[in-house]
Amino acid sequence: MVPMGEQAPENTLASLRHAIEHNDGIEFDLRMTMDGELILHHDNKVSVAKKRLPHSYTWVENHTLDELTSLGFLSLRSLLEDSKTLKQWKENGKMGCLEFKRPHPRALYGGGIFGKKQHISHIGTMMERAESLLDEYEIPPQNTVYYSFHTGILDQGSQDLRDTKGFHLFL
């Protein structure tokens, strides 16, 4: 519990719960861990002091879900398991805006600077996993927006990304 008048740290359960209870919804960034799980994290580097990291890799995608949650980060599944957040999103018509982040080009499977096809595939896998979790927790599709700041989503070869329930194109 965060003391009255203080703001909870970004992307924590406390901050997202507060936001969805007092606003129209929540927005958060998703990255995929080394073991294929979805974690809420904005930056491409793990945002803790290097001495706290379990190994020398700093990119989020080079860490497992267990490593990141042990550092205090929140998984999408953990967010959905929270009954207060779930009720707002599922039953009270609140919105969830999910921004899908591509891996850093230097991450172990980042694809490099010219790895556009790998980036598109990575984002597609993330969207499929998010959609599966949202279906599992019965989040209505109309209560979710997916987006990513990656031009590859508009390519002909990425039609499968645009076919996900939550994908909306804003130009």
Number of strands: 4
Helix fraction bin = 25-40%
Kindly report the average pLDDT value.
Answer: 85
Percentage of residues in strands: 5-15%
Strand order in the largest sheet: 2-1-3-4
Write the SSE topology.
Layout: H1 13-22, E1 25-32, E2 38-40, H2 65-70, H3 76-81, H4 83-90, E3 95-100, H5 116-136, E4 144-147, H6 159-162
Parallel strand pairs: 1-3, 3-4
Antiparallel strand pairs: 1-2
Overall description:
By secondary structure, the protein is α/β, with parallel strands linked by helices. β1 (25-32) and β2 (38-40) form a beta hairpin. The chain has a four-stranded mixed β-sheet. The chain has helices at 13-22, 65-70, 76-81, 83-90, 116-136, 159-162; strands at residues 25-32, 38-40, 95-100, 144-147. The protein is built from six helices and four strands, in the order αββαααβαβα.
Summarize the entry for a quick read.
With 171 residues, the chain is α/β, with parallel strands linked by helices. The chain is built from six helices and four strands, in the order H-E-E-H-H-H-E-H-E-H. A four-stranded mixed β-sheet has the order 2-1-3-4.
Characteristic terms for this protein:
171 residues; alpha/beta; 4 strands; 32% helix; globular
